[in-house]
Amino acid sequence: MKEAENDFIKFWIEDGILYSQFKKVTEGTIETLKSIIDLRTEISAGEKQYWCYDFNGIKSYNKEARDYADQYGQDHLYACAVVLNSHVVKYILNTFMLLKNSTVPLKGFTKKDDAVNWLKELKKKEKH
């Protein structure tokens, strides 16, 4: 299993899926987001990934960080399943993604198993 981590997030690749988990409650600043994207790029080694992004542990993302993620956060990804601890936030995210013309499929889930199964189904369809 391949792993990479910094002070606040850990990434690992298992059975062809990239996973991440925050190690502590983290503020989503531009510096934090750049660090997350850089670490994700490092573990991906230039290859696209199916990412199970456990969002629990992120306190908030400021506008500058959200804009940066929108511009650079889709590099090296086939798809992203976001694990959230709120059905309301999941609904808002999924509704927003229906309206947004994103190049990378992104969907919110409240259960990690559902997120991983969605990624595995996409991976199977795309044969990556």
Topology of this protein?
Blueprint: E1 2-5, E2 9-14, E3 17-22, E4 26-28, H1 30-44, E5 49-54, E6 58-61, H2 63-72, E7 77-83, H3 87-99, E8 106-109, H4 112-126
Parallel strand pairs: 3-5, 4-6, 5-7, 7-8
Antiparallel strand pairs: 1-2, 2-3
Helix pairs in contact: 1-2
Domain DUF7793: 11-123
InterPro entries: DUF7793
Organism: Flavobacterium commune
Quick structural gist:
This is DUF7793 domain-containing protein. This protein is an alpha/beta fold and 128 residues long. 41% of the residues lie in helices and 31% in strands.
Q: Tally the structural domains.
A: 1
CATH class category name: Alpha Beta
The total strand number stands at: 8
The largest beta-sheet arranges its strands as 1-2-3-5-7-8
CATH architectural arrangement: 2-Layer Sandwich
**Pairing-aware structural class of the strands and helices?**
alpha/beta
Quote the CATH topology.
Transcription Regulator spoIIAA
* Helix count, DSSP H or I runs of 4 or more residues: 4
| Low-pLDDT residue intervals, each spanning 5 or more residues | none
In CATH, what is the homologous superfamily? STAS domain
Gyration radius (Cα, Å) is 14 Å
| Residue share in β-strands | 25-35%
Question: What gross morphology would you assign?
Answer: globular
Main beta-sheet strand count, sense and barrel state: 6 strands, mixed
SSE ordering: EEEEHEEHEHEH
Instruction: Specify the helix fraction band.
Output: 40-55%
What oligomeric assembly is this protein in?
Answer: single chain
Roughly what is the average pLDDT, rounded to an integer? 91
Tell me the distance between the termini.
Answer: 18 Å
